[in-house]
Amino acid sequence: MPAEQNSYAQVPADYFAKRGLRRYAGVASLWALGVGAVISGHYSGWNLGLLAGGWGGLALAALVIAVMYLGLVFCIAEMGAALPHTGGAYSFARASMGPWGGFITGLCENVEYVLTPAVVVSFLATYLAAVFDTPTAWLPAYWVAGYAVFVGLNVRGVELSFRVTVIVTLAALACLAVFWISALPVAEFKRFALNIGAAPDGTAIELPNGDGPLLPFGIKGAFAALPFAVWLFLAIEQLPLAAEESMDPSRDMPRGIIAGLLTLFASAGLILWLNPSVAPGSFKLGVSGEPLLDGFRATFGEGLAKTLALVACVGLIASFHTILFAKGRQIYSLSRAGYFPEWLSRTHGTRRTPHHRRTASTMPITIARPFPLQGKRQAK
Prior knowledge:
The protein is mainly alpha-helical. It has helices spanning 2-5, 27-38, 49-82, 89-132, 139-156, 158-183, 189-193, 218-229, 249-274, 282-285, 291-300, 302-336, 372-379; strands at 196-198, 204-206. The chain has a two-stranded antiparallel ribbon.
């Protein structure tokens, strides 16, 4: 295969020694990483699908996405055990489709991991602004502070990063559990969740007394709600990016990702049922930037709701922190393979985390060989 061999370049013997990661994560850490990456989508984002498809349309869309993610997770669980490389989906694509397939997949993934934390931190800033009555002009200060703190945590070391991940994920689920328990006694599904109707021109209108149709916009509304239903599960696919920091990826990776998805199934079902079933209802929730805070206002009142909303920020922090972890590892893996500048994959001598400090280098690499399997294949 001369053409394939020409796509690779030789690297010095110490190339990978300067790019080593530390193994630390077990099943609990991987579960927390997967759930934590997604959990912000149970706080904000999903609710925008209510006006697109009504409650029934969003529920149907969520069911479709859940089935799709179930298939995806089973595939990832198997491939993550067979190819335990930090690149995740990029690694799978490169192993099966070669350098160009890996490059295209890695670039698309990179776009996801750059944009997703930006969206999450904007939701976080909205929650904090509501709690502290912050003027809109000051929202960028929350964005900058979020990146500064959590990039720092990820650089500090994998042990600290995973400990923080477990703590904030458990806290995020606990906050959701408080809402579920408080909403159960006051939930009025027909009145609040079904308060969206369709006007003659096809736009959404509010039904003051509720009792509207499950599918006010028909099946078309369910299709329109699909992009918003994705928020309930988006980013659990990042888990294989931690494969090289897992203690036993062939055993722990499948257990962690499947347990994480089952947790998300339960959480998504409860939030989709209970949050629209309390005031202000689906119609107003469909344009809200902080739907969980709106739910807390209905169950605890305005004063206590702000305190609980501050706690609720933990859920957004969990996703922001874990997706930044994924972003760093994804950039690291593409750099180590030669697609991005090679200095981006150098790891700290003690902490063994990518610290992205540029150093002088004379290595003439274009695409390195991060996978021993490919190296052996070339030798043949």
